[in-house]
């Protein structure tokens, strides 16, 4: 148990070290939230309703979190392949799924910086301030969002393991999930069929719960329901990813595509 | 009699690759075909063969990174395909080259993370890291990032990494590749020391002198098939009754090589380039006659001749066909 805890913490440390050292990741973490926030600000600037502040600040921040998480997950798989450390990780007694959970938890923590940057940038540069009438509920919903996003990222890591072109999938998946997740635009803007797909994504429920905490009115059923679904879908993704890891590990050993060389 | 550490039975491994973009076609590459061998505890077992012979595939199967397509293999009594979890704590490996380390971490940080991966108690890990880094001569450089290390230092760190879990079986795939002679010798000495500690070693290398020096037995692979399995002495006996004549030529060897090949006493001849000179290596049943012939050819412009008994490289060339 203690050894597992040590491994979890040291994997997080190694991952943070390797991730932060990459200039491209720093751009995704520090610059992308500003670009997204500015874009969303331009889209919503003529609106005077509550959506304005919500989608500019929270939308920009959540999109930043999502980008940083998918980028870092795909990047980590790709980097491990190039550095030849995948074989080391896979041949070690520790479970690959466990190692990936530690990496993704670190991704989630690092990606919170994107939200902080968005809040500060919106306030100082765009003059838009985020008010939190329900700070505890907001914190809980943010935890739910990170949990759900982590579950989803873990599932993506499986996909990235199977293919040597993780980057392509990361780029292809990032924007659609961003829209379907209701991160920067209301889900009501999407056609009905797309809303169904969106319902299977934990980040959609997480962002809905977060937006619900921004209204000054007392928290309603919508918040609790969205929060519940965030954790349920997140948990499902975690469970599915862990189940898949065993299968994917065997497939990778069968196909021999662990390394690039 | 030492217990069997590695047992391989009728093992085959193939890969499917695809070509084309619009009309994709699948091709099957047979990396290993029907390999059977046994390695005893504390043995240094060598694998030699040309590039693409299947050496790395075999090592990857035995280290549980690949599963066989047919046949089966056990390491320490556990099946490599289905009991990988039982095998992994007791083995470790080095794949030649500089990959397999976290370049942006220090040597110490790399080893402490690898110790955590093998669930080694922190107190024990601390002592072992110090011991291993001292053994490979990197203790004074332990806080430096790996990216600044020379090739030799990285290889030595690989050795330390591979010993972090005190493995019972160690797989070394071309561990001395690209090293300068001094670094290669240091590594060879380390390998001998590791074996003295009771570790079974699986070794591949293209350096025949190294293999002859270190290995108890050697398997020769070519195109995925095992051509021969014997001790280095046994392999050299394949050339019993032969002697080797080496001639240094000033870049005009092709014609002489063709002439030598036609002589009755000559079994094989091969020409290799080394800088502006060429070396003609001849396996001959009557070295005196061959030397007389060569001296007559170069009567006006004498060349340097060496007559010696066959070594492992000569046996290897005979087996894999490089000296046809």
Structural class of chain A: mainly alpha
CATH topology of the largest domain in chain B: Rossmann fold
Query: Which pair of chains has the greatest number of interface residues, and how are they split between the two chains?
Result: A-B, 30 and 35 residues
The H/E string of chain B reads: EEEHEEHEHHHEHEHEEHEHEEHEH
From the spread of the alpha carbons, the general shape of chain A counts as: globular
Please tell me the total number of domains of chain A. Answer: 1
Q: Can you give the helix content of chain B as a percent range? A: 25-40%
> Which value, in Å, is the CA radius of gyration of chain B?
23 Å
Taken in chain order, the helices and strands of chain A follow as HHHHHHHHHH
Which CATH architecture of the largest domain in chain B would you pick? 3-Layer(aba) Sandwich
- Oligomeric state: heterodimer
**What fraction of the residues of chain B are assigned to beta strands by DSSP?**
25-35%
Return the CATH class of the largest domain in chain B. Alpha Beta
Walk me through what this model shows.
The complex is a heterodimer of chains A (261) and B (324). By secondary structure, chain A is mainly α. Chain A has one domain (2-255). Helices cover 79% and strands 0% of the residues of chain A. Chain A is built from ten helices and no strands. In chain A, helix 1 (2-20) packs across helix 5, helix 3 runs parallel beside helix 6 (135-162) and helix 6 runs antiparallel to helix 9 (202-212). Chain B is of the alpha/beta class and 324 residues long. Chain B has two domains: 4-230, Rossmann fold (3-Layer(aba) Sandwich); 237-320, Alpha-Beta Plaits, CATH 3.30.70. Chain B has eleven helices and 14 strands. Chain B has helices at 55-62, 84-87, 107-117, 122-135, 151-162, 181-196, 208-214, 232-236, 253-261, 287-297, 312-320, and strands at 4-19, 25-40, 44-48, 70-75, 78-79, 91-95, 169-173, 200-204, 217-222, 225-230, 243-249, 266-274, 277-284, 304-308. In chain B, a hairpin with a 2-residue loop joins strand 12 (266-274) and strand 13 (277-284). In chain B, helix 5 runs parallel beside helix 6 (181-196). Chain B starts with a strand and ends with a helix. The mean pLDDT of chain B is 89. Chain A binds chain B through residues 3-4, 6-7, 10-11, 14, 17-18, 21, 82-85, 87-94, 99, 250, 253-256, 258, 261, and chain B through 15-16, 60, 63-67, 85, 88-89, 91-93, 95, 97, 99-105, 109, 112-114, 116-122, 161.
């Amino acid at each position: 148990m203690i050894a597992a805890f040590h491994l979890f913490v040291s994997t997080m440390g190694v991952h943070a070290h390797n991730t932060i050292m990459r200039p491209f990741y720093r751009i995704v973490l520090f610059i992308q939230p500003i670009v997204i926030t500015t874009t969303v600000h331009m889209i919503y600037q003529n609106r005077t309703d509550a959506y304005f502040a919500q989608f500019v600040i929270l939308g920009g921040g959540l999109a930043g979190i999502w980008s940083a998480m998918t980028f870092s997950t795909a990047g980590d798989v790709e980097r491990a392949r190039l550095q030849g450390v995948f074989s080391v990780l896979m041949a070690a007694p520790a479970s690959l799924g466990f190692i990936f959970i530690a990496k993704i938890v670190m991704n989630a923590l690092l990606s919170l910086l994107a939200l902080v940057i968005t809040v500060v940038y919106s306030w100082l540069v765009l003059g838009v301030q985020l008010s939190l009438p329900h700070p505890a509920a907001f914190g809980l919903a943010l935890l739910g969002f990170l949990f759900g996003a982590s579950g989803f990222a873990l599932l993506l890591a499986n996909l990235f393991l199977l293919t040597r072109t993780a980057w392509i999938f990361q780029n292809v998946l990032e924007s659609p999930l961003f829209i379907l997740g209701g991160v920067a635009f209301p889900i009501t803007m999407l056609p009905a069929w797309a809303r169904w797909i969106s319902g299977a994504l934990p980040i959609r429920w997480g962002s809905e719960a977060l937006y619900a905490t921004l209204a000054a009115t007392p928290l309603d059923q919508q918040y609790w329901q969205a929060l519940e679904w965030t954790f349920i879908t997140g948990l499902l993704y975690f469970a599915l990813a862990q189940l898949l890891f065993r299968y994917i590990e065997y497939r990778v050993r069968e196909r021999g595509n662990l390394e690039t060389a | 009699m030492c217990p069997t550490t590695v047992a391989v039975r009728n093992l085959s491994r193939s890969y499917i690759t695809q070509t084309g973009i619009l009309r994709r076609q699948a091709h099957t590459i047979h990396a290993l075909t029907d390999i059977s061998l046994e390695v005893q505890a504390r043995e240094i077992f060598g694998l030699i063969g040309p590039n693409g012979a299947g050496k790395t595939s075999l090592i990857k199967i035995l280290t549980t990174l690949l599963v066989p397509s047919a046949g089966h293999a056990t390491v320490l009594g556990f099946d490599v395909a289905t009991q990988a979890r039982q095998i992994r704590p007791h083995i470790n490996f080095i794949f030649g080259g500089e990959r397999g380390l976290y370049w942006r971490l220090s040597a110490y940080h790399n080893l402490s993370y690898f110790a955590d991966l093998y669930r080694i108690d922190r107190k024990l890990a601390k002592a072992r890291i110090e011991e291993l880094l001292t053994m490979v001569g990197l203790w004074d450089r332990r806080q430096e990032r790996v990216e600044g290390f020379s090739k030799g230092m990285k290889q030595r760190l690989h050795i330390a990494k591979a010993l972090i879990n005190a493995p019972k079986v160690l797989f070394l795939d071309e561990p001395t590749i690209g090293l300068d002679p001094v670094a290669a010798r240091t590594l060879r000495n380390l390998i001998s020391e590791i074996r003295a500690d009771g570790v079974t070693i699986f070794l591949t290398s293209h350096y025949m002198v190294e293999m002859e020096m270190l290995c108890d037995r050697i398997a020769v692979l070519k195109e995925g098939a095992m051509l021969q399995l014997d001790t280095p002495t046994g392999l050299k006996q394949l050339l019993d009754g032969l002697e080797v004549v080496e001639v240094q030529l000033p870049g005009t060897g092709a014609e002489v090589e063709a002439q030598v090949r036609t002589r009755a006493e000559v079994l094989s001849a091969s020409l290799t380039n080394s800088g502006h000179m060429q070396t003609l290596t001849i396996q001959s049943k009557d070295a005196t006659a061959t030397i007389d012939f060569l001296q007559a050819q170069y009567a006006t412009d004498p060349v340097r001749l060496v007559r010696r008994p066959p070594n492992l490289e000569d046996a290897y060339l005979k087996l894999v066909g490089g000296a046809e």
